[in-house]
């Protein structure tokens, strides 16, 4: 069975405003500002169809499970081709290619495409990978460069014209079940932060300008994590929160220093990102519906950060 052709569609704002929706708030990473999934635009439609509330529709070269990001006059999205596009006849892994695409935000016209071939040892197209494929990581941008994690092919940075600035290898490992990769990078004060637990059993901070790895937290227990990091403000600046099996880790983004940790009931795998509000963090997951709330403030009362836990 060949997967259906994909399109990227921009939903129109209310007809009373000529601006592209959300122009007042950039959507520069997975789930938008700090991963909270909230849209601040005043007029977002709640219904649409092939004729209603659409600005434009543009075909994509292949499949993908990443989310688009929006910044200034651009929309960025990933896709993959060459392998794993037909479930009955997936083809040759050597033909795999991943693509970062840039579209004009107003018209949907493709502006440029950066393509990267797969590498030796890509996970075979079977099992859970057939549900999401090889382009599941949402790109991110700091307004100067666009950063995208192309799985085992590495972390790549492109300028706004689509020219490669640098690429950095983050590992070619696989999780035990070979479900593929899906975590998305974020940018915090010039550091590109990635949960590369599946790829290399590590959390990493990469210099956004040069691609050099600034810090690395290594632990064999860091596999089976597909979450995207979340940022919380500390009295000394931002901290990056990682949800990994058995623990929540708060890291200083410039140095990689672990500031604090808390035990998590998610002991086998983590997929959902942490959500924060009013100094509290929330995480849920696993087949058993586990979850917890914890204190994100600099000095929680009594030193115990756990507010509640569901095992």
In short:
Helix content is 1%, strand content 39%. It is mostly beta strands and 311 residues long. A hairpin with a 4-residue loop joins strand 20 and strand 21 (290-295).
Task: Describe the structure in your own words.
The chain has 311 residues and is mainly β. The protein contains one helix and 22 strands. It has one helix at 197-200, and strands at residues 7-11, 54-59, 69-71, 74-81, 97-104, 110-117, 140-141, 145-149, 155-159, 164-168, 186-188, 191-196, 202-207, 213-218, 230-234, 237-244, 247-251, 258-263, 275-277, 280-285, 290-295, 306-310. The chain has a four-stranded antiparallel sheet, with no helix packed on it. Strand 19 (275-277) and strand 20 (280-285) form a beta hairpin. It is globular, with a radius of gyration of 19 Å. Residues 1-5 and 13-24 have low confidence and may be disordered.
């Amino acid at each position: 069975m060949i997967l259906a052709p994909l399109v990227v569609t921009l939903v129109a704002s209310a007809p009373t405003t000529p601006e592209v929706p959300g122009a007042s708030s950039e959507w520069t990473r997975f789930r938008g500002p700090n991963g909270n999934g909230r849209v601040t635009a005043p007029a977002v439609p709640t219904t649409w169809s092939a004729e209603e509330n659409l600005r434009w529709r543009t075909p994509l070269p292949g499949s993908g499970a990443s989310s688009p990001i929006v910044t200034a006059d651009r929309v960025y999205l990933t896709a993959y081709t060459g392998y794993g596009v037909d479930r009955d006849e997936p083809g040759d892994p050597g033909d795999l290619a991943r693509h970062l695409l840039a579209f004009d935000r107003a018209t949907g016209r493709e502006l440029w495409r950066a393509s990267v071939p797969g590498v030796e040892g890509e996970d075979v197209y079977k099992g859970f990978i057939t549900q999401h494929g090889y382009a599941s990581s949402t790109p991110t941008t700091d307004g100067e460069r666009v950063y995208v994690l192309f799985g085992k092919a590495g972390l790549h940075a492109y300028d706004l014209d689509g020219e490669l600035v640098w690429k950095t290898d983050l590992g070619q490992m696989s999780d035990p079940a070979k479900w593929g990769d899906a975590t998305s990078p974020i940018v915090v004060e010039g550091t590109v932060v990635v949960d590369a637990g599946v790829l290399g059993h590590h959390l990493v901070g990469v210099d956004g300008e040069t691609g050099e790895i600034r810090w690395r937290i290594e632990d064999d227990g860091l596999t089976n994590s597909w979450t995207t990091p979340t940022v919380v403000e500390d009295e000394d600046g931002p901290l990056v929160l990682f949800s990994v099996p058995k623990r929540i880790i708060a890291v200083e983004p410039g140095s990689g220093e672990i500031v604090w940790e808390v035990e998590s009931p998610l002991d086998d795998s983590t997929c959902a990102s942490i959500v924060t509000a009013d100094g509290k963090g929330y995480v849920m997951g696993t087949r058993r519906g586990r979850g917890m709330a914890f204190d994100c403030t600099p000095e929680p009362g009594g030193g115990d950060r756990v507010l509640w836990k569901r095992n």
